[in-house]
Each structure stands twice: as structure tokens, then as C-alpha cells.
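Quick one from the shared queue. A colleague (R.T.) flagged cysteine desulfurase as missing a structural entry in our internal table.

Convert sequence to C-alpha cells.
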Amino acid sequence: MSHTIEYLDYAASAPMRPEALAAERAYEEAPYAGANPNSLHTMGRAAARALDGARRDVARALGGGFRPADVTFTSGGTESNNLAILGLAEGVRARSARRRRVLLSAIEHDSVLDLAGPLRSRGFEVELIGVGRDGAVDPDALDALLDDTCALVSVMAANNETGVIQPVAELARRAHAHGALFHTDAVQGFCRVPLELAEVDAVSVAAHKIGGPVGVGALAVRGRAPLRPQVFGGGQEQGRRAGTQDVRGALAFAAAARACEATLADSRALVARRASALYERLCAVGTGILPTASALVDDRRLPGIVSVMAPAVDSETLILALDQEGFEVSAASACSSGSLDASHVLLAMGIPRDQALGSLRVSFDERVGEDVLGRFADTLLRIVAERSGARR
């Protein structure tokens, strides 16, 4: 077993950036540390100003014409997605009772797909939008489902398993043509690629994917969109989300966003080159490893997510073997109650279940060097060759 541990699961949660850690320390040393930003006294007002500064930074990093006032801080991507989908669907239906349908792509994160039940219990109809073998939602497939009863469409900016970037701008235009609102879960894409948000009504992001702290996220909703709150209490965040705000977390989130935004073009190109090289090495003829998505064009996938599958070896075996060798990765499948199940994303793409069960996701940013990725490739290729031979 290796004594060095190399973390390659940034898509699950990225290590904290120095800028985010420095922002937390600065907060702890500030006179207003611990003050409630909703209080009227001097320290409360100072905390509120700091929070508003973080809000401006997150809005600027999002782009797409979102204003600071559009940004609501949350506890993370899951809460942001819940608030967006439940809140917008109910808000639209309150304006027009006939709009009772919600369309979700079949490859969404569980924090979106698991809302199908709650939506139906609230009287909505929920339908899934299929994807192609390339892992992308076809705008024509969305068009076929749209009509004047649709309240909301939600399609992620980039998939958290395959890294495939979705045609969000065009999908939003199609939704708007039928009077529906459009939300995108940009938790994976935020600060990794420039986001096309000018047509989007709401976008969810999270701090810990970009090197900020766990437990902080944001939902940006345009002022014209009828968002119904889902948590009630003190009326914080302009009445959209009750609960005293985590000022320290918001400041660290903003610091991570500023750091990523400043180097986005260079880091994206660097990480994309490293990912392409890793794909070429792992998926060469005869390795027994395949890419999960049929399109590997750099501008159609997130840099830093390498999604592959080894049909002759299951994901659990690969993850544990790599862990023993000092490499931390994840799978596009989950182990539940001792039984391995295939990823809903890969199955929706038409990948056979036996192949999907061997999926692996390697994720990183510019802080992971070529030497680490090279040693990882050597190790994975050796494990797959050994395990495949043993099974034969």
C-alpha cells in the first residue's frame, strides 16, 4: 500500500483554497465576528456589509446579468436546487393555475430528481427529458415535451458524473418560447467553465466544489421570477430563505470564487489538456477501459472530470484497489446495502448495465500535477489488466 494519498475526487468536494481559508481567518479576527447581520447595531451592520460584499462577488462570478440582489445564500447545492424547483414551480402555478408540469432531465443530480415525489404530492406532473449517447439533452427532445401547461424546466449546466456540458442557453430559449421558466444546476460548472446564463431564470451553485467551505451555497433568481420560499422564520435573504446567514462561509465562498474567476481561462486550458491526455492514455486500444460519453471534444465537457468504465471490473473493486494504492476516486454508481447499482446517468445515456457497473470518475483541478495523473494512470491500467485477467 502506498504511503502517499492522492485525492482525485474534486467533483465530490474540492480541497479548500488558501484564499478561502484566509477569508475565514480574517472573519474570525474581525470585530463583527459572530454578529448577526440582521441586527441594527454597529456590529450587525458591519456583518451585513461584509455579507453584501460576498453577494456581489458571487453575482459577478456567475455573470449572465445576475445582480447581487438576485443571490440568496443557502446551505449548499442541494438546498439551492430544492428551493429553486419547489419555489419556482409553486410561484408559476400561483400566477397561472394551468401551469402544473415540471420537466427535469433524466441525468440530473439526486437533489433534483428526488423532488419528483414531493412535486407530485403538491399536485404537479413531472416528466423526464431523455438524453443521447453523447450525454447531452437535445433541444428538440425538450421541445417535444413543452406546451403551455409547463411551469418549469430544470437541466444542469454540466453533468456531475460524465462532465458533459449541456446546451443550457438554447434549452432556456425553448422553455421561454412556451412561457416556462428555466433553472440550471451549475454546481459542477461554476468557476470551471464560463457559464451561459443570460437566458436562465435561476442557477444553483455551491462553495465546496470550487475550494470553498462545505455547507455554503447560493441560488441566484432573477427578480421577475416568482419564487416561493420553502423555509420560514425570520424573513432573511429578502424573504426567500429564513435563517441567520453564515457570514464566515459566505466570505470564504466569495474568496474562492474570486480566486477561480481570476485564473479561469488559464486553469481551464491547463486542466483540459491534462484530462485529454488522461483519457487518451486510459482509453487506448487494448486497455479494457472506455469513455462513458461518446463525445470527448474539450468544449463539450468540463475540464477535470474524466469519466471512464472498465466493463470487466466493477466500480467497487476498482475504488477499493485504487484506495489501497493511495488514489482516492469515486464511481458513477453507488453501493447500497451491499449491492452495487448502476448509475442512472449512464443508463439514461443507453449504456448497458454491465458496462455501467464498471464506471469510474476521476476529478481534479489545476492543483493536481501531471506526475500524479501519470502515476494514477499507471496504477489503474495495471489493476484493470490484473483483474480482467483474473476473471478470464
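Residues 333-339 have pLDDT under 50 and may be disordered.
The radius of gyration is 21 Å.
Added to the table.
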